[in-house]
Task: structure prediction
Amino acid sequence: MNNMIKIETAKIGGTEINSVNARELWAFLECKSRFNDWIKNRIEKYDFVDGIDFTTITKNLVNGGKSTEYIISIDMAKELAMVENNFKGRQARRYFIEVEKRYKQQYQLNFTALQKMAIANKSVLEMATAQADFFQMDTTAKLLWGQNLLHRYNLPVPDRIPLLENKIISKLYQKREIYNHFGAIGRGSKPKQDNIKSILSEFETDSKYAVNVPYCRNGHTGTTYQYTEKMIEKLEEVLEKNLGVNNGK
Result:
């Protein structure tokens, strides 16, 4: 029964709804009358309204003539199938009912997911705001911290939150992640760690490179710097210049 009759979205009366091409339905129903006669008769007999139940599209034919296509709503399609009063009509009507049922189930799933996302989004933003206020973060740090938290939980950034430099800070790195990125973890790595630490200290007051964010570990709270992708790029540049290394590889 899948895709027995093609269903697409179309604008009828200014609203986009699920619809079918009446000509395809007519062909499936194996109606004996000509299509134009059939559709016009059904519209007149059952009081279907242009702009509510259907819309028309005029197409130019290769031979220079014109063809009128009727794009009809699912409700109209169900009624047209029902009034045929035969096996094909009942088959088409059951198909439309089943498709509508699936659409409604999918809509409900999507709506529920959006509701959960909105609740989670609001909670994360409230948490970010509370943390930012507690640690007296400046506006730039607040924005970066809020965006970072939303991305950590795979949540969208609301339109009302301005994005710095018109792009989202997709990730903030902790100092250990920075060391690991440049291969400065393990035995013999202290000189490289010290060099990286010195460079971080030089740039961490610039919000382009670092954000002072709150933390809570083992009952202790405070703030610590986390670093942006631009900090990674700056480290690569400085380390390559000063130490002749490229990304620790």
Remarks:
- The chain has two domains: 8-85, 122-243.
- The chain has eight helices and six strands.
